[in-house]
Amino acid sequence: MRAMFGGYGVYQDDLIFAIIVNDALYLKSDAAVQRDFEEKCLQPFTYEVQGKPVTMQYFEAPPEVFEKPNSMRDWVEKAMGASIRQRSHSPDKTFQARRGKSSPP
User: Fold this and answer.
1) How sure is the predictor about 89, in pLDDT bands with cuts at 50, 70 and 90?
2) Are 40 and 103 in contact (CB under 8 A)?
3) Residue 48 or residue 90, greater confidence
4) How far is CA 38 from CA 18, 60, 88, 92, in A?
5) Which of 13, 17, 21, 98 could bridge to 79 as Cys pair (CB 3.0-4.6 Å)?
6) For 4-52, what is each residue's pLDDT tens digit?
7) CA triple 74-77-81, angle to 5 deg
8) Which stretches of the chain are assigned E, i.e. beta strand?
9) Within 10 A of 72 (CB to CB), how many other CB atoms are there?
10) Is 32 helix (H, G, I), strand (E, B) or coil?
11) Edge-to-edge strand order for the sheet containing 52-60?
């Protein structure tokens, strides 16, 4: 976990797949899994910058994940998939530069 957004980013290795803000868990989403979140009427993480809302690709975790370990596993796998897909679409140099790493020779 790393501090961010007034909360925490949750990582597996170098992939962020969730954030915790104001005691709420939000899971990473993308076009491939966003419908799963929307079908459960889960809301995206939104914050304000200069009075304007900014919506991120993280959605509330469904309540059942806190009661059923298998449900948590399923939703985390969806979030990890979104994170992996985002990374695979990110240019290698840009991805590594954001993390302070240099490109391999």
Assistant:
1) confident
2) no
3) 48
4) 17, 10, 24, 31
5) 17
6) 868 999 999 899 999 999 999 999 999 999 999 999 999 999 999 999 9
7) 145
8) 2-4, 7-12, 15-21, 24-28, 44-49, 52-60
9) 17
10) coil
11) 2-4, 7-12, 15-21, 24-28, 52-60, 44-49
Residue 58 zone, left/alpha/beta (φ > 0; ψ -120 to 50; rest): beta
Distance CA 63, CA 38 (A): 14
Q: Which residue has the tokens 């104001």?
A: 22
User: For residue 58, what are its two tokens?
Assistant: 């993280």
> Nearest CA to 58 among 44, 72, 76?
44
Closest C-alpha to 27, from 75, 67, 85, 96:
75
Structure pTM?
Answer: 0.81
Neighbour-count burial of 59, counting CB atoms closer than 10 A to its CB (0-12 exposed, 13-18 middle, 19+ buried): buried
